[in-house]
Specification:
Layout: E1 9-15, H1 25-41, E2 45-51, E3 55-61, H2 68-86, E4 100-104, H3 109-117, H4 119-125, H5 128-138
Helix pairs in contact: 1-2
C-alpha cells in the first residue's frame, strides 16, 4: 500500500528441548547459516544470530507480512529435520515448546547486536535461566512459571 512504512525489530530466544547442550561448536555455524536462509526466504533481515549449546538468540528486521509464531515454527521445524537428517547429534534433536519475542526500537539495534554477539562472555557470568527471566522482566512481560522453558539449575553450559 502506498505511503505505508513499517519498521519492526524482533529479538527471538528459544531453547533446546530439556535444555540439553546438543548444539556443538563443530556445526553451530552451519545451523546459524541454515536459519539465516529461512529468515531471508521469508523476507526478514537478519541482524544477529548466536547459537549457544542449549539455546539460540536471533535478532531480525521483521517483515510484518508473516506472523511471528509462523516464523518461529518454520525455524524450529526445519532445523529439527535438518539437524536430525545430518546426524549432527547422537540424540534426537528438538526445540522446547515456546519462545520469547522481544521488540526493540531502531536506536537499540547496535546494543542488541552486541548483546547477541557477546553471548559467550555473557554466559560466563550469567546462566540462561537468569538471562531469560531478566528479558521477561525488563520487557514487563507477565509470565507464569509453569509455562516457562524447562530449566535445570545444574545444567553445565559446555561447548
Amino acid at each position: 500500500m502506498a505511503d505505508t512504512y513499517i519498521q519492526c525489530y524482533i529479538h527471538l530466544v528459544f531453547a533446546v528441548k530439556n535444555r540439553d547442550s546438543l548444539i556443538k561448536n563443530l556445526w553451530k555455524n552451519e545451523l546459524e547459516m541454515y536459519i539465516t536462509g529461512i529468515i531471508q526466504n521469508h523476507h526478514h533481515k537478519l541482524l544477529a544470530i548466536f547459537a549457544r549449546p542449549d539455546h539460540i538468540h536471533i535478532f531480525i528486521g521483521y517483515n510484518v507480512n508473516q506472523l511471528i509464531p509462523n516464523l518461529v515454527s518454520e525455524i524450529k521445524t526445519s532445523t529439527n529435520g535438518w539437524i536430525n537428517a545430518k546426524k549432527f547429534s547422537n540424540f534426537k534433536f528438538d526445540w522446547q515448546k515456546g519462545y520469547g519475542a522481544f521488540t526493540h526500537s531502531h536506536s537499540q539495534i547496535n546494543t542488541i547486536i552486541q548483546y547477541i554477539k557477546n553471548q559467550e562472555i555473557h554466559h560466563q557470568k550469567m546462566a540462561f535461566r537468569k538471562e531469560y527471566l531478566d528479558l521477561l522482566q525488563k520487557n514487563e512481560i507477565d509470565f507464569n512459571d509453569q509455562y516457562l522453558f524447562v530449566f535445570f539449575d545444574d545444567v553445565l553450559e559446555l561447548n
